[in-house]
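As a warm-up, study this chain.
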Amino acid sequence: MYEFEYHRAKSVDEATSQLSGADDGRFLAGGQTLLAAMKLRLAAPSDIVDLGGIAELRGIRVDGGNLVVGAMTTHNEVAASKDVAKAIPALAHLASDIGDRMVRNMGTIGGSVANNDPAADYPAALLGLGATVVTRDRRIPADDFFTGMYETALQPGELITAISFPIPKRAGYAKFPNPASRYALVGVFVSESGSGVRVAVTGAGPSVFRVPDMEAALKSSFSPESLAKVTVPADDLNTDMHASAAYRAHLVGVMAKRAVTQALGK
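Now compare it with the structure written out below.
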């Protein structure tokens, strides 16, 4: 790990100010990705601004028809929240199966979303629910937020403060996890609400994506059987040591059916 300057911010304004004064600064949320990269010398920021002391970035609340989760809320807090379990049970289920116990106790929703790992779980929930990423400066719809592998619409120094999830009529999430890391080889989040049906896939491609053909089929009939004839082309999917693109394409269909079954409470 290379030498760096450490700052612990007490407010969002202070964090933004501290980062703006750095040559090459980074915000530190749960640290589950950044610290590992720094230890391997794959990342060498000049300054680290720790967000752990900012109380306004934590917490979960229901605001009208939305579930709002603070950016520094941990995966375990999402999984254990009664508000989440009541409003969006699928989101609590998703959070409960991220990584291992240590990762869930340290990792944060804001950090995961900002990192946009192609096999992370939360991006599927954001895109599958039509969530909004709230930053200090603006509100970014999930459809516009995830722009590529480890890439997002965030500007340099822009800080996520919360995620706002519309509460759906029903939703489900199913993933085929890597047995070691618990990252998704393929994960599928489905939801049905007054604005329609959404299907989002993580782990299969370079970044999270929606499947319009599945959405159309589920809009006609929200059942696993309606997906029987819907396939996802393997052309743009990932192939690596864990699974081929063709296998991932097959898993998308399998996980989508399981997610719908979960959403139906079966």
